[in-house]
Specification:
Elements lengths: L1 H30 L21 E4 H6 L13 E2 L8 E3 L4 E4 L5 E3 L8 E2 L20 E3 L4 H4 L8 H11 L4 E4 L2 E4 L1
Parallel strand pairs: 1-2
Antiparallel strand pairs: 1-3, 4-5, 4-6, 7-9, 8-9
């Protein structure tokens, strides 16, 4: 009796584990960033959002093997060192399709993701600082840049808080300028 309970417990545990692994694999397939049925899941170095980027030539030359399987022509810019790895293409206005992919926004579509003329996330920012203006710069990686919509990034929420306390500002992904 005790042996049958142990066997039953092992069977149930194995079934739950197999189901969990299967669900993880299905999710990985769904988001499309991993090769299917490889162990361990091997991240594919290309994402559709890489179409929005211009890559640093020095970084590209150092990591050329990471770009070999990419299905797109890679645009490069010249820099004195390998950082930053990439910049966003300037003046992009992207809408979110129902399948979760970005496409250029039409005039009647809500802009989900954008870059300004400097390649920063968000709207245009003035070059000339107004007298008495406070400038705040948000530096960071993906948590600052954000992969979500323009109005769901933490720089956007910071802008809203500054507006509430009477310090209106103009935001741009990693960079903020108050007026």
């Amino acid at each position: 009796m005790r042996l049958s309970r142990t066997i039953k417990g092992l069977f149930i545990s194995g079934t739950i584990l197999a189901l969990g692994v299967s669900l993880c694999e299905l999710y990985a397939r769904h988001i499309g960033l991993y090769q299917t049925w490889s162990w361990s899941l091997k991240k594919i170095p290309y994402s559709a959002r890489d179409n929005l980027k211009i890559w640093n030539r020095r970084f590209y030359e150092e990591k050329n093997s990471d770009f070999r399987e990419w299905p797109i022509q890679i645009e490069l810019f010249d820099a004195s060192k390998s950082t930053p790895r990439y910049l966003f293409k300037p003046n992009l206005r992207m809408a979110l399709r129902s399948d979760g992919k970005l496409q250029p926004a039409g005039s009647d579509e809500r802009v989900y993701w954008s870059s300004n003329s400097l390649g920063f996330r968000g709207p245009e920012i003035p070059f000339v600082k107004a007298a008495g203006a406070l400038r705040v710069v948000c530096l960071g990686a993906s948590t600052t840049e954000g992969v979500q919509s323009d109005d769901e990034t933490y720089p956007h929420f910071l802008q809203q808080e500054l507006d509430v306390v009477g310090r209106p500002c103009c935001r741009s992904g990693q960079c903020w300028l108050s007026r």
